[in-house]
From TrEMBL:
GO terms for molecular function: ATP binding; ATP hydrolysis activity. Belongs to the ABC transporter superfamily. This is ABC transporter ATP-binding protein. Residues 5-233 form the ABC transporter domain. It holds the Pfam family ABC_tran. It comes from the Bacteria. It comes from Salicibibacter cibi. Gene3D superfamilies: P-loop containing nucleotide triphosphate hydrolases (3.40.50.300). InterPro entries: AAA+_ATPase, ABC_transporter-like_ATP-bd, ABC_transporter-like_CS, P-loop_NTPase. Keywords: ATP-binding, Nucleotide-binding, Transport.
Length: 308
């Protein structure tokens, strides 16, 4: 896979404060890279360096193999971006804002504006002043602006910010369509970890300015712990049957039986048969999966322990 976005050990210091340290990213064409981290972990600073908005104290960024500098204009032709609050002219309408950006981009086809408004469900707000838009619609306008010149690369800081659940589903579908059907490469930061888990092909966790883990989406399933949760009418007796059969289990805080035994998780039918056979038919039997949020918190806690 061709690498389109790359950073080579970039660091940023603000007056002695290390905001980002040695971050090396490599994002292939058509990938959706989800960048996650706590507030102040260095996501926006990294994104700004990748876009040439601030200069790394050390290290270099490359977009499509070209070195990123504040003066390398060519890069901007291939990149659409949102960094923090999307910029717009609040006194102008949605249509006027997009018209201005079309002209700044020297795009001759005026139809592109209506096309992108349609794509982002903004047509009905075309005549509304941008300053009066809801947060979610302002975000859509930001994404519309980023997409106007059909860029090959999208770098989006919190693109789902302020969107309602249906807006999130819509933007998710749009980003997936762009990446999977049109080969657009996307780097997005987000606090919505469940969203990142759904959409990203690769996830990067940044903490205290360092990239502490990268996870391919296909690895994610294996990393997230699973457990089988069982309820019967006599959990104390049922658990002793399970333990006798070699399934390490415990009663959790809710009084339910819980096991992380891989055989039980892979074959819950066998557990069900065993319990029915011994006279403790399950009334509930579910495989529960740890979500990205709890995995993320576990990783961050471990990092905290390393520092202490
Ligand atoms: N211009 C600046 N001068 C001094 N410190 C800064 C500057 N910009 C960012 N920082 C600091 O660098 C650290 C990383 O900030 P950054 O905005 O990159 O984090 P973030 O992960 O994007 O956070 P959030 O999720 O809250 O947006 C923070 O501690 C922040 O206070």
């Amino acid at each position: 896979m061709r690498t389109v976005i790359k950073s080579n050990r970039i660091s940023k210091k603000y007056k002695g404060f290390q905001a980002v340290k040695d971050v090396s990213l490599s994002i292939g064409k058509g990938e959706i890279y989800g960048f996650i981290g706590l507030n102040g972990s260095g996501k926006t600073t990294t994104i700004r360096m990748l876009l040439g908005m601030i200069k790394p104290t050390e290290g270099t960024c490359y977009i499509k193999g070209e070195k990123v500098t504040s003066t390398n204009q060519r890069i901007w032709r291939s990149v659409g971006h949102i960094v923090e609050t999307p910029h717009c002219y609040p006194e102008l309408t949605v249509l006027e804002n997009l018209e201005i950006f079309r002209r700044i981009r020297l795009m001759s086809n005026p139809d592109i504006v209506s096309k992108v408004m349609e794509q982002l469900n903004l047509t009905r707000y075309a005549q509304k002043k941008a300053g009066n838009l809801s947060l979610g619609n302002a975000q859509r306008l930001g994404i519309a602006k980023a997409l106007l010149h059909s860029p090959e690369i999208l770098i989006l800081d919190e693109p789902m910010n302020g969107l309602d659940p249906s807006g999130i589903v819509e933007i998710r579908a749009l980003l997936q369509d762009l990446a999977f059907n049109r080969g657009v490469t996307i780097l997005m930061s987000s606090h919505l970890l469940s969203e990142v888990a759904k959409i990203a092909t690769k996830i990067g966790i940044i903490h205290n300015g360092r990239l502490i883990q990268e996870i391919e989406s296909i690895q994610l399933r294996d990393l997230l712990n699973q457990q089988l949760v069982i309820d019967t009418r006599h959990n104390k007796s049922a658990i002793s049957q399970l333990t006798t059969a070699g399934y390490a289990s415990k009663i959790n805080n809710d009084g339910l039986i819980e096991t992380t035994d891989g055989r039980a998780i892979r074959d819950p039918d066998e557990i069900s048969r065993l319990l029915v056979y011994t006279g403790f038919a399950p009334t509930k039997l579910i495989v529960k999966e740890e979500n990205l949020e709890s995995y993320f918190m576990k990783i961050i806690e471990r990092e905290g322990e390393k520092v202490q």
